[in-house]
């Protein structure tokens, strides 16, 4: 971030930032320390003395370094940035200034997360991803605490502890870590059919994002916008990534979890460090209040989407993440999101999941961050002024002046004053009813939208969903649980249920429970209108001594110009010798990486190089595995021999691009197009032993 586009939040954080350049080591009391490597002892070999205050302070602080991890969404990564609205057209619907003031740059901090795994778990597990954005608006903080899937597992928040207990590692042996493939989760799922729609999303590739920068975000619930006249409009929030929506494949994710458990976190960090600032478009679906009951589902039911074909997503503004945190704990770990943080112009609905969340976030943060003053932690502080009568508590960081800490008061001149311009007023909604523990009948259909999702998938997406169900249920020990899930799936689609049943040793259902309604929503498919670009894609160039240095350079220059990130990989680090004796610098040694960490691979020519690579099991495996995962593979001239060694040269397969020695330009443009397509699922890859 350059000096002139610093946000108000950034300037505020300066007050808390501490540098260490050219400083001396001190105790917490500011006393300079003469030795931090040897404790104070009686004699050189003697016992340590209690009076060694530096030793005691150092150890005590260390002993207390850990705070509880988040009960869900413990594993996350975050970044600073800003939000800018395109125009003032939402002013008819909301009074929120950050949504209606063009030119206003609202600082944000965004945290992405997995849900089930603990803080040290791998990034690429099958899971929902959290997508939480804190907007530091001039009217106070607004938190949009969403996920990368538009629906949720349950309809009423009172079920949340049950759901989370079921998905987390099992209580007797704390197995498995960060995985839904176990008995308790699927037991809950089979008995709680409202989970069906979300389970379709979770079994789809949406649960395996290639990058946080390439996933959608959703507010999930129906919220309410309220305009200056107090008129309400229902709203669903959407985030759309500029780089398109792209996923990994399951085999790849499992391998990445070992090769680089920080894969998504690293990707976000590196993109921002290299100036490829991740960007999303905020969109809204607006529903007039009079249309509340115009749908065949309930707007208050968080297991339902509003199909985009029914209510289009209207673009609102852009979110850009352009600065990594200075300190993970101080910022990413201590940030506290809360659905209840709203600004004038945004309000809630009676969605019972939303209502429960309104209680939970503040409650959990009181224990996680150790008391009621956590809003004073730098990353949580609003840029708007904070003045109230809250006092005392652990870690009070301000020095409230004056005698009056109550309202009304005369001793403080009546201040801080209540009301006035910009004060939040709750939307006035008339509600009548008896107290009752009951689910509304309008929440009763658990299958139609699961079917809608299934019907909307491309062929390869359906294959991945079936494979995911087979994998997950294959890990479930109790047969009756597998059977229960298949029974539910037969309510979604008969073919789906049969395909899953056949893979997991369950008797396939004889006939459809209900006929498939046949409707789809094209926008739900990742195949729908995909964004195709090589920008920020990681491309491996395999080389050994004797490589054609001009080709390496030509490929690298062409792809880098289009925004790709190219790395030369060889058996050893340093450099390889080009065919003409040139030094070709190596970015990484093959033993430190793997094909799963790249989006595409190129094998340049140079006979000696290709011969050496063809005899190197790691290089051959690299190419085979990239093929298996549907990645673009390019070979120039003699490079094609490595494809033969990997058994993928012929017959021609989608996304495998070969080029003649002299046709660098034709090759790079065909290869770039293949890499931009992200993956080529229509390949015969089952035969590949990788
Ligand atoms: Fe959360 N959720 N949640 N959740 N949630 C938390 O708050 C909860 C739900 C979401 O990066 C917790 O500070 C309940 C839906 C995100 O810090 C906790 C229910 C959606 C994050 C909590 C839900 C979310 C959380 C744990 C059902 C998507 C991480 C630590 C009624 C719209 C935010 C914390 C971050 C975190 C409760 C359901 C998103 C326990 C009770 C639906 C992105 O308060």
UniProtKB/TrEMBL annotation:
Source organism, top-level taxon = Bacteria
The record's annotation in InterPro entries points to: Catalase (IPR018028), Catalase_AS (IPR024708), Catalase_clade2 (IPR024712), Catalase_clade2_helical (IPR043156), Catalase_core (IPR011614), Catalase_haem_BS (IPR002226), Catalase_immune_responsive (IPR010582), Catalase_large_C (IPR041399)
Q: Which GO terms describe its biological process?
A: hydrogen peroxide catabolic process; response to oxidative stress
CDD domains in the cross-refs: catalase_clade_2, GATase1_catalase
Q: What are the catalytic residues?
A: 73, 147
PROSITE patterns attached to this UniProt entry: CATALASE_1, CATALASE_2, CATALASE_3
What cellular-component terms does GO give this entry?
cytosol
Which molecular function GO terms apply here?
A: catalase activity; heme binding; metal ion binding
* Catalytic reaction annotation: 2 H2O2 = O2 + 2 H2O
- Locate the residues binding heme: 70, 111, 160, 357, 361, 368
E.C. no: 1.11.1.6
| Its biological purpose | Decomposes hydrogen peroxide into water and oxygen; serves to protect cells from the toxic effects of hydrogen peroxide.
Which protein are we looking at?
Catalase
């Amino acid at each position: 971030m350059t000096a002139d586009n610093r946000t108000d939040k950034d300037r505020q954080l300066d007050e808390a930032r501490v540098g260490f350049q050219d400083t001396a080591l001190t105790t917490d009391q500011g006393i300079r320390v003469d030795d931090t490597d040897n404790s104070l002892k009686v004699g050189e070999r003697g016992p340590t003395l209690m009076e060694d205050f530096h030793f005691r302070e150092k150890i005590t602080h260390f002993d207390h370094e850990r705070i509880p991890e988040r009960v869900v969404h413990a594993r996350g990564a975050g970044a600073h940035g800003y939000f800018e609205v395109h125009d003032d057209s939402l002013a008819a619907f909301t009074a929120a200034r950050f949504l209606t003031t063009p030119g206003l740059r609202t600082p944000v901090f965004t945290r992405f997360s997995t849900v089930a795994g603990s803080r040290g778990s791998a990034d690429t597990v099958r899971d929902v991803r959290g997508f939480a954005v804190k907007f530091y608006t001039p009217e106070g903080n607004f938190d949009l605490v969403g996920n990368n899937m538009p629906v949720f597992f349950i309809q009423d928040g009172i079920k949340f502890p049950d759901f989370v207990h079921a998905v987390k590692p099992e209580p007797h042996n704390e197995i498995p870590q960060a995985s839904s493939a176990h008995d308790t989760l699927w037991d809950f799922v089979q008995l709680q059919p409202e989970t069906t729609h979300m389970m379709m999303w979770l079994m789809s590739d949406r649960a395996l994002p290639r990058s946080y920068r390439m996933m959608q975000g959703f507010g999930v619930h129906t919220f309410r916008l309220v305009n200056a006249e107090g008129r309400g409009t229902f709203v669903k929030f959407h985030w759309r990534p500029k780089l398109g929506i792209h996923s990994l494949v399951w085999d790849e994710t499992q391998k990445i979890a070992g090769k680089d458990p920080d894969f998504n976190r690293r990707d976000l960090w590196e993109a921002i460090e290299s100036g490829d600032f991740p960007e999303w478009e905020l969109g809204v679906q607006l529903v007039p209040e009079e249309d509340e009951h115009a749908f065949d589902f309930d707007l208050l039911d968080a297991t339902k989407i509003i199909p985009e074909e029914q209510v289009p997503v209207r673009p609102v503004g852009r979110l850009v993440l352009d600065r990594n945190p200075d300190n993970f704990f101080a910022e990413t770990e201590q940030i506290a999101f809360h659905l209840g943080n709203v600004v004038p112009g945004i309000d809630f609905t009676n969605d019972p999941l939303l209502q429960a969340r309104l209680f939970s976030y503040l409650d959990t943060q009181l224990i996680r961050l150790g008391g009621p003053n956590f809003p004073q932690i730098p990353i949580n502080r609003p840029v708007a002024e904070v003045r109230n009568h809250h006092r005392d508590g652990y870690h009070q960081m301000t020095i409230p002046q004056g005698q009056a800490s109550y309202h009304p008061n005369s001793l403080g001149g009546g201040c801080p004053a209540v009301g006035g311009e910009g004060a939040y007023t709750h939307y006035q909604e008339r509600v009548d009813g008896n107290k009752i523990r009951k689910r509304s009948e309008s929440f009763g259909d658990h299958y139609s939208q699961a079917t809608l999702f299934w019907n909307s998938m491309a062929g390869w997406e359906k294959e991945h969903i079936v494979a995911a169900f087979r994998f997950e249920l294959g890990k479930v020990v109790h047969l009756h649980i597998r059977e229960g899930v298949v029974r539910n799936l037969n309510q979604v689609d008969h073919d789906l249920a049969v395909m899953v049943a056949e893979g997991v040793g369950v008797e396939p259902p004889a006939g459809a429970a209900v006929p498939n309604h046949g409707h789809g929503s094209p926008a739900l498919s990742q195949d729908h209108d995909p964004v195709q670009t090589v920008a920020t894609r990681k491309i491996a160039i395999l080389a050994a001594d004797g490589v054609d240095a001009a080709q390496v350079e030509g490929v690298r220059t062409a792809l880098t110009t289009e925004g790709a990130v190219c790395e030369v990989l060889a058996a050893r680090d340093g450099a390889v010798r080009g065919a003409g004796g040139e030094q070709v610098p190596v970015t990484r040694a093959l033993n430190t990486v793997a094909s799963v960490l790249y989006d595409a691979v190129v094998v340049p020519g140079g006979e000696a190089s290709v011969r050496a690579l063809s005899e190197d099991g790691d290089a051959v495996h690299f190419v085979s595995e990239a093929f298996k995962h549907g990645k673009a593979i390019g070979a120039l001239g003699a490079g094609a021999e490595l494809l033969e060694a990997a058994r993928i040269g012929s017959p021609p397969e989608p996304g495998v691009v070969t080029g003649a020695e002299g046709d660098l330009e034709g090759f790079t443009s065909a290869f770039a197009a293949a890499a931009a397509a992200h993956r080529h699922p229509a390949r015969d890859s089952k035969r590949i032993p990788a």
